């Protein structure tokens, strides 16, 4: 799968830690859902993502027909971002690629 690049505002959602997420824009949900069929551990995984200059491994969380991308605490600190900040995201579904 090609990398998906977008900008998104960081939101807080009461759920599993780290509590901060970037919502995947609607125009990418179909492609992610399709790619996750072969790369998923049963519910969809994004094993490589990048926010700004920080590359990290994380997961997608299904939410209201779309996905939320978990932004780890280490990434929040490295990028100096928090709720309401807009971030540039690059992600790829799969177990081996890099963004």
Automatic annotation (TrEMBL):
Pfam families: DUF1905 (PF08922). Gene3D superfamilies: AF2212/PG0164-like. It comes from the Bacteria. This is DUF1905 domain-containing protein.
């Amino acid at each position: 799968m090609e990398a998906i690049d977008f900008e998104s505002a960081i939101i807080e959602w009461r759920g599993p830690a780290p509590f901060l997420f970037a919502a995947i824009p609607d125009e990418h949900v179909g492609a992610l859902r399709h790619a996750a069929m072969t790369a998923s551990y049963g519910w969809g995984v994004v094993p490589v993502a990048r926010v700004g200059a920080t590359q990290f491994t994380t997961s997608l969380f299904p939410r209201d027909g779309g996905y939320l991308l978990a932004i780890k605490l280490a990434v929040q600190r490295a990028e100096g971002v928090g709720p309401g900040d807009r971030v540039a995201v690059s992600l790829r579904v799969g177990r081996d690629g890099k963004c």
